Give the backbone structure.
Amino acid sequence: MPQPPVPPTAPVPLPDLERCDPGGLLRRAFDGREAAAGPRDLVLVWLLRLPAELDPALAARRILASRPAAAGAEAAELSGLLREIADWPRARLAQRPAGRSRLH
């Protein structure tokens, strides 16, 4: 007997852009005004600045939704890093594969 289709999950509303990019760090980087650090360093600083209760995946989605297509190599790398973060929401990170034990 075929499996019933999985009901689609309700879309999660994206948080406010100001909460998702405290201080506008990534917005300045996309605009070319944050040249002192590379994309990986900027993402690390951004992650540390996010409010603890805000899922970085949702914040990354919100930032990506507010930006046009990335122009330039650093903006493209920054977009790629944010897409990777967006693919790993807290709920997905919390899942453990069945049959695998935790390392102590």
